[in-house]
Amino acid sequence: MNQSQFELAKPILERLIQHGYEAYFVGGSVRDFIMNRPIHDVDITTNATPDEIEALFEHTIPIGKEHGTINVVWEHENYEVTTFRAEAEYVDHRRPTEVYFVRDLYQDVERRDFTMNAIAMDINYERIDHFDGERDIEQRIIRTVGDAKTRFDEDALRILRGLRFKSQLGFTIDKTTFEAMAQQMADLEYLSIERIMNELTLLVKGRYVAETFPKLEPLHLWRYIPYFKDVDVAAIKLNAPVDIESFLAILSYRTNYQAFKPLKLSNAQVRIIQTLISAIQRAQTIDTKVQLQQFVYDFGIEVALTINELRPILEDNQIDLPSPIIFNSASLQAVWEDLPIQSREDLAIDGKWLMQAFQLKGGPWIKDVLRQAEHAVIQREVNNQTEAIIEWVRTHVKIS
Ligand code: ATP
Ligand code: MG
C-alpha cells in the first residue's frame, strides 16, 4: 500500500535509466517505507545533470536548479529530482550555497545527515545502503553519517533535525551523536530563525515529544534560540504532541513573556497565539452555563475545541479548565449549535441601525451597546430581531 507512491514515480526512474543514467529513490521516503510509515514526497537522486533532467521530461520546474534540484511533474505529482552532489566548503556552520555535482551515488549519500536518511533504493526496491541505515532503523538509532562532530560543525541544523526525528520516530540518539550534539549546540546561533522554527514545529508535534522534550533542557538547546533563551522552558511540561502555536501560547502564558518578535512568526500565527492565551485565561474563569456560552461565542467553536484538546497539557502545567463534565467536546459543540447567534454578523442590528434609532453620531458607545445586545441575545433575554433589540436597548442600556 505504501509502495504505491514509488510505483507512481517509477516511470521517472525508468526514463532516466533508459537514457543511460543512474537513478534511485532516496532520503525520507525510503526511510519511512522501510519503517512502514506513511510516505510523503518521494525524492529521486540521479547522475543526470539538471539540464539533462530538464531535457528528458516535458513538465519541469527549475526551483532549486542551482542546488541541482529539478522538480519533475509526473501525472500531476511533483517530484524532486536531484543530481548526485556534494557540498562545497561550509562557512559559518550553515549549509553552503555552493554545491558541486559528483559522479557516484556514494558521494551523494555520504553528505546526507543520518544513516537512516542515506539509504538509496533502486527501481526493483533493492537497497543500496552504504552506511548501515537499515540496521540503525531496525535498532531505532539516530546516527550521523560519518563523524558526528564534523557533521554538526558543518551544519548545525542537523542537530535540530536529529532531535526532531527523535520526537517523530521515538528513536534513541547514538551516544557519540548525542555527545556531539551537546558539544556543538552553541552553533545553533548561526542558523536562521526560519529554519529553526521549521524544525521546532515538527519537534513539538512529534508523536514521541513527551519523552523527547525533557531531554532538550540538559542539552541546553533553548539557550541558543531567540525568545526561548529568555524564558524558563523547563518550567513547562509537554506530555503530548501540540501545534507550535499552542506550545508558544502555553509557554508564554506560564512564563508571562510574549516578546515573540525574534521568532519571525507570521501575523496569522501571532494572532492564533494571542487568541489561545486569552482563551486559556478565560476558560479558567468559567463557573456557570452563561459563562460557558459566552466563552464559546467569543472564541468560536474551533478555539474552544482546541482548548479542550489541550486539557491534558494545560492541567499538567497547573492550568485548570472547568470540569470535563461541563467542558468537553460534546458540550462545547452543543452550546455552539444552540447559540441564537454565532457571531456579531448574525446580530439583527449593527452600528448604523443604532445611530439611526437613537439619532446619535458614531462613537465608542456603539461598540459598548452592541456588546451588551449580543450578550442579551445569547442569553435569550431578547430575540434576535431588529425592533426587539432596539427596544431592549432603549429600556436596558444607558447610552452616554
Ligand atoms: P521528512 O520526512 O520530514 O521530509 P526528510 O529526511 O525527507 O524528512 P528533507 O528535509 O525532506 O528530510 O530532506 C531530504 C533528504 O535530504 C534527507 O533525508 C537527507 O538525506 C538530506 N538532508 C536534508 N537536510 C539535510 C542536512 N541539513 N544535512 C544533510 N543532509 C540533509
Ligand atoms: Mg522529505
In DSSP terms, counting alpha (H) and pi (I) runs of 4 or more, how many helices?
A: 18
- Secondary-structure class: alpha+beta
Rounded to an integer in angstroms, the radius of gyration calculated over CA atoms is 28 Å
Query: What shape does the CA trace take?
Result: elongated
**SSE order, as H and E?**
HEHEHEEEEEHEEHEHHEHHHHHHHHHHH
Domain Poly A polymerase head: 23-143
Family: Belongs to the tRNA nucleotidyltransferase/poly(A) polymerase family. Bacterial CCA-adding enzyme type 3 subfamily.
GO biological process, one term: tRNA 3'-terminal CCA addition
Subunit structure: Homodimer.
Structure commentary:
The protein is an alpha+beta fold. It has 18 helices and 11 strands. The protein has a 7-stranded mixed beta sheet with strand order 3-4-5-2-1-8-9. Strands 6-7 form a two-stranded antiparallel ribbon. A two-stranded parallel sheet has the order 10-11. Strand 3 (60-61) and strand 4 (69-74) form a beta hairpin. The longest helix has 21 residues, at 289-309. The model has no long low-confidence stretch (mean pLDDT 95). Residues 27-28, 43, 95, 112-113, 117-118, 155, 157-158, 161 line the site of adenosine-5'-triphosphate.
Features:
alpha+beta; binds adenosine-5'-triphosphate; nucleotide-binding; 18 helices; 48% helix; RNA-binding; binds magnesium ion
List the topology elements.
Elements: H1 4-18, E1 23-26, H2 28-34, E2 43-46, H3 50-56, E3 60-61, E4 69-74, E5 77-83, E6 85-87, E7 99-101, H4 105-110, E8 120-121, E9 127-128, H5 133-138, E10 141-142, H6 148-154, H7 157-169, E11 172-173, H8 175-184, H9 193-204, H10 209-216, H11 244-255, H12 267-283, H13 289-309, H14 311-316, H15 329-338, H16 351-358, H17 364-378, H18 386-396
Parallel strand pairs: 2-5, 10-11
Antiparallel strand pairs: 1-2, 1-8, 3-4, 4-5, 6-7, 8-9
Helix pairs in contact: 6-8, 7-9, 7-10, 11-12, 12-13, 13-15
Bound molecules: adenosine-5'-triphosphate and magnesium ion.
Adenosine-5'-triphosphate is lined by residues 27-28, 43, 95, 112-113, 117-118, 155, 157-158, 161.
Protein name: CCA-adding enzyme
Domain Poly A polymerase head: 23-143
Domain tRNA nucleotidyltransferase/poly(A) polymerase RNA and SrmB- binding: 170-228
